[in-house]
């Protein structure tokens, strides 16, 4: 039993909840990081939604729906204003001047917990639950595109691209001529499960590859399919997976991702590798949005920043998962594998590099150097006005590039 000092009800609360969907206890356990609260973030409750359904032979644990925002006209109170001076981060949680009027902080998080889960469902794959976004029809004649995000973000960054890639290109066509799109949150990231390291998942490259293989089977993705990859760490693991499974891919599109041994490693990942300092760094509730903005020429709108920070506010689990993954990754070695693996004579599938030239982490020279190693297969498309995450900064230009390439 435990008691929340922020609750207007002074009665103690049970530390274990039952899930009507999985028929599993949601209790404090050594097997999942999701039960650990974040430093600087306040978690006072968790809730599972009912409404499980079967879809194309796979188990959909729960549908993700957006909830109507409440209290827009109420005066704002910012309990996390000390965290950052970034304009988009000044309202980490919106509360009235008297928080007790609307209940405790946990109830506020509960009201926004489904925010940003566009097109998404929870799907059981093996021992873990993934959050997967899906648009279009699996029977689309144009095929399936799988979008993989990087760290420390989530598949939410692809929402606009996915919504536009399913639109019909041939006005006279009577059948669906858009693409079937899938974008999972990697295990440990976004809204997917965050298992405790050492209990079936150790956040190594092999673990990510193995679980991704299982997910593709559950989703019944037919090979070969189209793959889009972006970002550091788990984004790089998407490319190393492709190198090990070339027959399963027809075409590969790469958005800003470390591609050469000379690719710089952002300060965030260097800090995470420092003992003790990394533990504090990973629990910064606005870490993801600040990382995105630091690599771009733009500041996120508040409604977008809310989604990127939500997992880190709700629990300490995403931060600890990122910490484990960063400490077990050899960034330089992975980048070297990618550079060598996609060079001429080793890779013969078409590759598009859609590169945001305003990237503050990876210079344009990284993309150009990569292209020179395999000019027959690699096409470079520079996207002006976009930074490290072109799919977030300028999704329309990314869609145009993907449509021409695919």
List keywords for this structure.
406 residues; alpha/beta; 10-stranded mixed beta sheet; two-stranded antiparallel ribbon; globular; disordered N terminus
Structural class: alpha/beta
Tell me the β content.
15-25%
Largest sheet: 10 strands, mixed
Which stretches are poorly predicted, pLDDT < 50 over at least 5 residues? 1-57, 65-105, 169-176
Helix content: 25-40%
State the order of secondary-structure elements, H for helix, E for strand. Answer: EEEEHEEEHEHEHEHHHHHHEHEHH
Our count of helices gives: 13
- General form: globular
- Widest sheet: strand order? 3-4-5-6-8-7-9-10-11-12
* N-end to C-end Cα span: 55 Å
> What number is the mean pLDDT?
79
Q: Could you tell me the radius of gyration in angstroms?
A: 21 Å
Descriptive report:
This protein is of the alpha/beta class. 29% of the residues lie in helices and 16% in strands. It contains 13 helices and 12 strands. β3 and β4 form a beta hairpin. α2 packs across α13 and α4 runs parallel beside α10. The radius of gyration is 21 Å and the shape is globular.
Compact overview of the structure:
The protein has 406 residues and is an alpha/beta fold. 29% of the residues lie in helices and 16% in strands.
Topology:
Elements lengths: L15 E3 L6 E3 L25 E3 L2 E6 L41 H8 L7 E6 L2 E8 L8 E5 L10 H7 L14 E5 L20 H15 L5 E5 L4 H11 L4 E7 L11 H6 L4 H5 L5 H8 L7 H13 L2 H11 L3 H11 L9 E6 L7 H9 L5 E6 L6 H4 L1 H11 L1
Parallel strand pairs: 7-8, 7-9, 9-10, 10-11, 11-12
Antiparallel strand pairs: 1-2, 3-4, 4-5, 5-6, 6-8
Helix pairs in contact: 2-13, 4-10
């Amino acid at each position: 039993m435990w008691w929340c000092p922020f609750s207007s009800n002074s009665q103690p609360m049970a530390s274990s909840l039952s899930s009507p969907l999985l028929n599993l206890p949601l209790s404090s356990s050594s097997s999942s990081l999701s039960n650990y609260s974040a430093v600087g973030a306040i978690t006072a409750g968790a809730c599972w939604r009912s409404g499980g359904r079967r879809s194309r032979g796979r188990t959909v644990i729960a549908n993700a729906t957006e909830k109507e925002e409440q209290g827009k006209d109420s005066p704002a109170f910012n309990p996390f204003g000390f965290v950052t001076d970034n304009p988009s981060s000044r309202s980490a949680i919106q509360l009235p001047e008297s928080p007790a009027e609307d209940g405790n902080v946990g109830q506020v998080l509960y009201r926004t917990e489904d925010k940003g889960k566009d097109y998404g469902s929870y799907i059981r794959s093996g021992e873990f639950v993934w959050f997967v976004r899906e648009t279009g029809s699996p029977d689309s004649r144009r095929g399936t595109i799988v979008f993989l995000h990087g760290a420390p973000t989530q598949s939410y960054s692809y929402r606009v691209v996915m919504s536009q890639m399913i639109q019909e290109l041939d006005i006279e066509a009577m059948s669906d001529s858009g693409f079937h799109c899938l974008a999972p949150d990697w295990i440990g990231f976004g809204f997917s499960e965050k298992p405790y390291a050492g209990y079936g998942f150790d956040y190594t490259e092999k673990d990510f590859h193995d679980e991704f293989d299982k997910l593709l089977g559950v989703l019944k993705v037919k090979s070969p399919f189209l793959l889009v990859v972006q970002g550091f760490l788990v984004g790089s693991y998407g490319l190393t997976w492709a190198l090990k499974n070339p027959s399963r891919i027809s075409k590969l599109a790469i958005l800003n991702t470390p591609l050469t041994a000379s690719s710089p490693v952002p300060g965030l990942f260097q800090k995470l590798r420092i003992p003790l300092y990394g533990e504090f760094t990973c629990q910064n509730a606005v870490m993801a949005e600040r990382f995105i903005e630091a690599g771009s020429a733009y500041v996120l709108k508040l409604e977008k920043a809310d989604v990127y920070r939500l997992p880190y506010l709700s629990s300490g689990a995403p931060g600890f998962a990122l910490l484990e993954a960063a400490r077990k990754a050899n960034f330089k070695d992975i980048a070297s594998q990618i550079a060598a693996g996609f060079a001429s004579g080793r890779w013969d599938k078409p590759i598009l590099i859609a590169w945001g030239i305003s990237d503050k982490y990876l210079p344009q020279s990284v993309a150009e150097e990569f292209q020179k190693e395999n000019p027959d297969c690699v096409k470079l498309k520079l996207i002006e006005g976009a930074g490290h995450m072109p799919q977030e900064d300028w999704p329309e230009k990314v869609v145009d590039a993907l449509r021409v390439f695919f």
